[in-house]
TrEMBL record:
Protein name as annotated: Dihydrolipoyl dehydrogenase
Segments forming domain Pyridine nucleotide-disulphide oxidoreductase dimerisation: 348-452
Species annotation: Spectribacter acetivorans
Transmembrane segments: none
Keywords: FAD, Flavoprotein, Oxidoreductase
InterPro entries noted in UniProt: FAD/NAD-bd_sf (IPR036188), FAD/NAD-binding_dom (IPR023753), FAD/NAD-linked_Rdtase_dimer_sf (IPR016156), Pyr_nuc-diS_OxRdtase (IPR001100), Pyr_nucl-diS_OxRdtase_dimer (IPR004099)
Gene3D superfamilies in UniProt: 3.30.390.30, FAD/NAD(P)-binding domain
Length: 477
């Protein structure tokens, strides 16, 4: 077996791993990049980018069907599923190709192919060909879709977000198991592309929201558009000549069954940790096989082992993975002189229509004794109504004793932009008064944010202290 000695061994060549490698290389350290699968990040290959390509096609179809609201009528609309999926794959391959090309351009002697397995605190065996001894290890091994037991026996007959984009044609019917971010995004897109789609979930949750009022607004809208089977339990799933037959029990304990051409399992993803043999490191593992981990340092326990990206099961988003990779790489190089980093304000967007977003503290994490809440409905918001997208609710949280913005949960048109504005304001520790001093153009959906801020100002009893222009109205709008 070949022997290799490096400063930092990096398991995984996704977003977190590549960022860790970059930091180590810049610091002058030696490194080994270990990958068991194909190059290309989760985002580019099976996540953010191909899903948004599919959603873009679905949005185009939906806009055509909804054009009658404006007195615009389009006859003989035809959706060519093969062309839709062909564009998704072509553009996906283009995005992923950039990452693959850059990774393959790295020196071959630093790249190892094979499954990594710990045989000591910082010693790894890669496949059956290389033993790597490192001063520190960064685990950036990513995650894999979780397949619930009823579907495990027919795994080859169901799809996940890892392989949905390999479909060459759209099926006629689709069961979506799970109503988290992946299930909602892909399922709604498929429904808008003309498929018969039914969603199944054990709970009543739709997406990651925790604010009960915003959750209710999401349910009211989604239930009017989508076939939701919430509070259900899957009894059995079996392959038949007609497709996949699902048997389930509803909230009233009645049993049902239906056959679908295809089943999309979107029941979450699990870190690729079990096969690493972390027990050999001496780390104390919890019941899920995960080590103790500090998100401010990316360190596992007090060892020179660092965890980053989806493998950490912390916040499985690209920008978080990039940050964690950098933090892990830096601390791996300078171990034992570990530096704690202040993490960015949490920011998450679900690209449904309307969009779901969260910025800063979640409702579930608030100290309700010291929190005031401002709100705005988008049902009659000016720009939203002009666009025919007037539905949704935004709730924004501030500290009662000082008016500092804490967080927000929202559902409505173009929430990706409002969430960014709020995340920046929260990270800068702006108060409600300071936020209202910022400019708001007219007519834009961001004016809805101003309405929520003004609602907060009144509830905090600081409206009288605002500058007169900060409470200026736009009559009739």
């Amino acid at each position: 077996m070949q022997e290799k000695q490096v400063d930092v061994a990096i398991i995984g060549s996704g977003t977190a791993g590549l960022n860790a490698r970059s930091v180590v290389d810049k610091a002058g350290g030696s490194w080994a990049l270990i990958e068991s699968g194909a190059y290309g990040t989760t985002c580019a290959r099976v996540g953010c980018m191909p899903s948004k390509l599919l959603i873009a096609a679905a949005d185009a179809a939906h806009e055509i069907h909804a054009a009658g609201l404006f007195g615009v009528y389009v006859d003989d609309v035809r959706i060519d599923g093969e062309q839709v999926l062909d564009r998704v794959r072509r553009e996906r391959d283009r995005f992923a190709g950039f990452v693959v090309k850059d990774t393959q351009a790295l020196p071959a002697e630093h790249r190892l192919s094979g499954e990594a397995r710990f045989v000591g605190p910082t010693t790894l065996e890669v496949g059956d060909h290389t033993r790597v001894t490192a001063n520190a290890v960064v685990i950036a091994a990513g995650s894999d879709p979780f397949i619930p037991p009823p579907f495990d026996a027919i795994r080859k007959h169901v799809i996940t977000n890892d392989d949905v984009f390999e479909l060459e044609r759209l099926p006629k019917s689709l069961a979506v198991v799970g109503t988290g971010i992946i299930g909602l995004e892909l399922g709604q897109a498929m429904a808008r592309l003309g498929l018969h789609v039914v969603f199944f979930a054990r709970s009543t949750d739709l997406g990651p929201l925790t604010d009960p009022d915003v959750k209710a607004a999401v349910f009211a809208q989604m239930d009017s558009e989508l076939n939701l089977r919430l509070s259900t339990s899957i009894i059995d799933a079996a392959r038949t000549d007609q497709g996949v037959q699902i048997q389930w029990r509803d909230a009233e304990d009645a049993e049902h069954e239906e056959i679908f051409d295809t089943v999309l399992v979107a029941a979450g993803r699990r870190p690729n940790i079990p096969d690493l043999n972390l027990a050999a490191t001496g780390l104390e593992l919890n019941s899920r096989g995960m080590p103790p981990w500090d998100p401010s340092t990316a360190q596992c326990g007090d060892l020179p082992i660092f965890l980053a990206g989806d493998a950490s099961a912390h916040i499985p988003l690209l920008h978080e993975a990039a940050d964690e990779g950098r933090i892990a790489g830096e601390n791996a190089m300078q171990y034992p002189d570990i530096v704690a980093h202040a993490r960015r304000t949490p920011l998450a967007v679900v690209f449904t229509d309307p969009q779901i977003a969260m910025a800063g503290q979640r409702y579930a994490d608030l100290n309700t004794n010291d929190t005031e809440i401002g709100a705005v409905s988008f049902d009659d918001q000016g720009r939203a109504r002009v666009m025919g997208r007037n539905r949704g609710l935004l709730r924004i949280y501030a500290r009662r004793r000082c008016g500092t913005l804490l967080g927000a949960e929202m559902f409505g048109p173009r929430m990706e932009h409002i969430a960014h504005l709020l995340a920046w304001a929260i990270q800068q520790k702006l108060t409600v008064q300071q936020a209202l001093e910022m400019p708001f153009y007219h007519p834009v959906v961001e004016e809805g944010l101003r309405t929520a801020l003004r609602d907060l100002a009144y509830k905090l009893k600081v409206a009288d202290s605002l500058r007169c222009e900060d409470m200026a109205e736009a009559p009739g709008c």
